[in-house]
Amino acid sequence: MKLDADLEAQIDRWRGYVQRRQAIAAADVDELEDHLRGQIDDLLGTGLDHDEAFLVAIKRLGNLDAVSREFAREHSDRLWKQLVLVPDDADTRAPAWRELAVVLGFAVGTGIAVKVGLSWSNGEAGLARNIGLLVFPFLAGYFAWKRRLTVPVLATLLISFAALAVLLNVYPFASFGSTEVLAALHAPILLWMLVGVAYVGGRWRSDARRMDFVRFTGELAIYYTLLALGGGVLIGLTVAVLQAVGVDPGPVLAEWILPFAVPGALVVAAWLVEAKQNVVENIAPVLTRVFTPLTILMLLAVLAVLATAGGLGTVDRELLILMNAILVLVLSLLLYSISARDSLARPGFFDALQLVLVVVAIAVDAVMLTAMLTRITEFGFSPNKIAALGLNLLLLVHLLRSAWLTVGFLRGRHPFAALERWQTRYLPVYGGWALIVVAVFPLVFGFA
Keywords in UniProt for this one (predicted)? Predict the structure, then answer.
């Protein structure tokens, strides 16, 4: 039976909640969801409405009482307490020492790979092209172990990593040429997509799983930043003490500590997100509500600067690059805000504020596209201009559709799930564009 959009949103949210809380193995989630859907179909046939059928079906999943109890405390307005709240049981999960050992193993492996890469790299350009290949496979390896990936998915990941490595190192790039720089900038996007395949357990076609990965990306950025700040303070104090007693820690710091600590912290941060998601889930809505109005003010300031910069053809190239970075940041904030929002909540003031953010971003993007087309008309095509133009066109389509769906949500014409689905289904488009830039641009522009 085909379920309506609101009920699909509830099922997606239940599944994401269960998977993120790690109450059950990832391999069992599919089977549980199939069972849940079967229960809902049966209950709908008895005359229950969608909400009643969903809640009763959840109650019947007796082995998820612990997760349901947690969910009830956060969402009592949806009658979870009446249906599934049971007395607390002692936490019987085994100690996490085994997973910690695996995490540390991958973190050390990342550091060793980076250390070897620094020693064997063919100049700075070669290191820039390959730095992602030295780090992201280990992060994907952690999730492959965590999610117990099937052999076909593992084989796909290995072949994809290997193919990208061959492509980046066989192409005869001109040293520090435009196509080499573009390849170095876009390869991490492809690598992150592959990490996403491992994170979602190979279920990349699932909207809910892709949204989980969006949420994970935002939380990973938060944890990694916190680790970097704390590690920076610790290293700074240690260096100050050693210098005070006449010891120069510079060589050891540059040659050993940083090559292991910086990439290894990424794996550790990913583990912390997996283990402590409820901490970030509590602060994510606060962060998005703080930074959304600030970002709107920043974009308005950007528009004012562009409006007073004279002819669009005279806008500095570095300024356009910076504006691209700002738009990507705005899109990241939008995605994280959507992933952190309660998909069943009614439209509110913050949703209207996000619409303002998207509309202002569209205005900035339109001005930038005009400036880029003006520069191309005056100075001709180049790899950098085409790559930037393509990215801005992709961003414009993404933002326009997001604005349309947000307006529909605010007016009660579309469920919030429609806005979520648009975000997750459009994300692979960026991966496709990155693949074109990495694999096709060098051939088209003669590796210049």
Answer: Membrane, Transmembrane, Transmembrane helix
Per-residue pLDDT of the chain (448 residues; tens, 9 = 90+): 556 777 777 777 777 766 665 545 555 667 677 777 888 887 787 777 777 788 777 776 654 555 555 554 444 444 444 444 444 444 444 456 788 899 999 999 999 999 888 877 666 767 888 899 999 999 999 999 988 898 999 999 999 999 999 999 899 988 888 899 899 999 999 999 999 999 998 888 888 888 889 888 988 988 899 889 988 898 888 888 888 888 888 888 888 888 899 999 999 999 988 876 555 555 666 777 888 898 899 889 888 877 776 656 556 667 777 788 888 888 988 888 888 777 767 888 889 999 999 999 999 899 888 888 888 888 888 898 899 899 999 999 999 999 999 999 999 888 888 898 899 999 999 999 999 999 999 999 998 8
Q: Are residues 249 and 330 in the same domain?
A: no
Same domain, 267 and 120: yes
Same domain, yes or no: 49 and 140? no
Residue 297 covered by a domain: yes
Cα–chain-centroid distance for residue 191? Answer: 12
Contacts of 373 (CB under 8 A, 6+ apart): 389
b/e burial code for range 40-56 (CB count within 10 A of at least 16 → b) = beebbeeebebebbbbb
Contact indicator for 135, 110 with CB cutoff of 8 Å: yes
Q: How many residues does the chain have?
A: 448
H-state helical runs in 245-276: 250-252, 258-275
Asked whether residue 431 is domain-assigned, the answer is no
| HSE-up (13 A, CA, CB side) for residue 303 | 15
Per the domain annotation, does 271 fall within a domain? yes
Tokens at residue 60, please? Answer: 């019947």
Which of these, 427, 430, 438, 437, lies nearest to 216 by C-alpha position? 427
Residue 254's contacts (CB-CB under 8 Å, 6 or more residues apart) are none
